[in-house]
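Handout, section B. The chain below has 284 residues.
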Amino acid sequence: MHELLLHGAVPTDRHTQVLSILAGIAAMQPQPFHERHLIYKPIRPVIRASMHVGGSQAVQSKQVNPMQAVQGAIQGDLFFLHLVEDLAAKGNYKGEMERKDDAEKMMESKMMDGIDRGVEQDPPSTPFPNSSSNSTTTTTKWTLQFRDIPEAGIRRPVTTRLIADVPITGGNAVAFMSALEYTQTSSHHLLGHRLTHNSTSILLFQPVIPPSPSDEASETTTTTTIQPLDPQNYILQLSLRVADGTKPALMERGVKELMGLKELLKGVVEVDAVERGILDTRVR
């Protein structure tokens, strides 16, 4: 599957205004989301020298995890993977409203009143039961995400990359990554709102960082215990997924839809394709 992307920056003091405009364009209420991202990198294959007699004594044997071989660990690139937990579905999301003053709450209330409530909305997510103190068991909703480096040499006004999302439906997600010989390098949260316009997913969010590793592993992580990485800005992401990126007609339809939404946002916020290196997911 391929993903087409446009990105923009929204100053914090314009967050409510831009969210209101996006809600009007999408004709729906913004849906809050809160994701925890655990970043993993593969352990590079170890080349062990084996001493043999005769002419084979200079030959080295390679012991490589099969999953790393699939990812191109032997001759190609290694990539970071994201293990993503949906904290909103889990019931730990308390909402961005807690960090806003009364004036902003009133503005958002007025914004919601002006939205056409006749549009059918998705039912709210049902919280998962906290039946265990281990936040990586089946009581949580985890997804393993792969994002390739954006394609180069293609003349399109949007960012294009190959992606894969694999739901983890059972067992211990962290133990699963360890069994694949991946090690965690860092973590962060994404906190914001999600909307949909035609086939385009609209995200307005801030990357936030938990205060300590112990909090990161906690079942009760909330917006009151984490701080934005950049308090001055939000990230606006427009994304559209194409099931078969090898079909030029489908890709062009996707590009046309993204560019149409970009035109609708003209004068509100500028969105463009970012530099390829910013979205580079390869392990160096």
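Note. Helices lie at 15-26, 66-70, 87-90, 102-113, 173-179, 213-216, 248-264. Compare this with the example in section A.
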